[in-house]
Amino acid sequence: MSVIANTPKPPYYAVIFTSTRTKGDNGYSEMSDRMVELAEQQPGFLGIESAREDVGITVSYWSDIDSIKNWKANSEHLEAQKTGHKSWYASFKVRISKVERDYGI
């Protein structure tokens, strides 16, 4: 993903997922693509941005906290989370923030 998300006028929410990976792909790329596809279908989803070097950062944008909770509880997403904990991530952190202001060109 190399596109900056086209988010609406604030306020809205950002889920910031920061991670370090284990060695090898082990199905990660395919599941990552599937999770983006699935997130895009969820009510309240606004967009996503992602970058990976030594540390990966994915920021997904949501209209409200309930949309984030529903995404967290999605059964296919839950399975991906379990596999991630077990196989793909050496470490990770999730942060949820309210965006109160944004600007850019």
Question: Beta-strand percentage?
Answer: 25-35%
Give the helix/strand class: alpha+beta
Total DSSP E strands: 4
Give the end-to-end Cα distance, rounded to a whole number of Å. Answer: 19 Å
CATH architecture assignment: 2-Layer Sandwich
For this structure, what is the CATH class? Alpha Beta
Please indicate the count of domains: 1
Helical content class: 25-40%
Largest sheet: 4 strands, antiparallel
The radius of gyration over CA amounts to: 14 Å
* Silhouette: globular
Mean pLDDT: 94
Q: SSE string, helix = H, strand = E?
A: EHEEHHE
Total of DSSP H or I helical runs spanning 4+ residues: 3
Q: The CATH topology, please?
A: Alpha-Beta Plaits
Task: Give the oligomeric state.
Answer: single chain
Please give the order of strands in the largest beta sheet.
2-3-1-4
Q: Uncertain regions: pLDDT < 50 for 5+ in a row? A: none
Question: What does the model show?
Answer:
- The longest helix is centred in the C-terminal third of the chain and has 14 residues, at about 75-90.
- It is built from 3 helices and 4 strands.
- The chain has a 4-stranded antiparallel sheet.
- The chain has a single domain (about 15-100), classed as Alpha-Beta Plaits, CATH 3.30.70.
- Helix 1 (about 30-40) runs antiparallel to helix 3.
- The chain has about 100 residues and is α+β, with helices and mostly antiparallel strands.
- Helix content is about 35%, strand content about 35%.
